Amino acid sequence: VVHNAIGSEFKFKNSKSDKFTFITVASLLHLKGLDLLVPAFKLARIPFDKWKMYIIGDGPEYGNLSKQIHESGFQDNIFLLGKKNKVEIAELLNNSNVFILPSRMENFSVAILEALACGLPVIASLCGGVRECISDNNGILFPVDDVNALSNAIKNIYSKYDSYDRLKIAEDCNNQFSSEVIAQKLTDIFYSVLKNN
């Protein structure tokens, strides 16, 4: 298996945010599980003035998510930012603390790799190939559609955030998934096929 490569825009920068910042990048589709975020944050009960969440992306769930956010009173905490280009996403990642992807179905998420490349610990649902890149050293996995488990993951990562080594997270990710590493793997496969035929 040769995984997707990370774009060169996604590099670790030791940036700071005014509040503890969660972030996600996803198409706003039901299968991405973004509707779990509001109820999970309500259960987590982190003080309103201590955190914010950026949702980057567009899609048919925009209206539903916007309604959820306003009905929960989170309009000053959770922000729908719409579509962004790769450079803008990289900058927002580097000014955030934790990446969340609560998908109901996933293959191998490039968005997670991009977050890891910027040194963010990740909270992700246990589906698809996510377990191949998330460990105790760089994040928390939770069962699909489990709001309570997602909420607990949010509380846990918020409380023990200082235990994560962001530079090491970024280095480990780039050592496995940088464009140079993936290109070399593909080249080795091509040479192997040519040599054997």
Explain how this protein is built.
This protein has 197 residues and is an alpha/beta fold. 40% of the residues lie in helices and 15% in strands. It has helices at residues 37-44, 62-72, 86-94, 110-117, 147-159, 166-177, 179-196; strands at 20-25, 51-56, 78-82, 98-101, 122-125, 139-142. Strands 3-2-1-4-5-6 form a 6-stranded parallel beta sheet, sandwiched between helices. Helix 2 (62-72) links the parallel strand 2 (51-56) and strand 3. The longest helix has 18 residues, at 179-196. The protein is globular. The chain starts with 19 loop residues before the first strand and ends with a helix.
Supply database-style keywords.
197 residues, alpha/beta, globular
Low-confidence stretches: none
* Residue share in β-strands: 5-15%
SS field, number of helical segments: 7
Apparent shape: globular
Mean pLDDT: 91
Radius of gyration: 17 Å
Question: Which sequence of strands runs across the widest sheet?
Answer: 3-2-1-4-5-6
Number of strands: 6
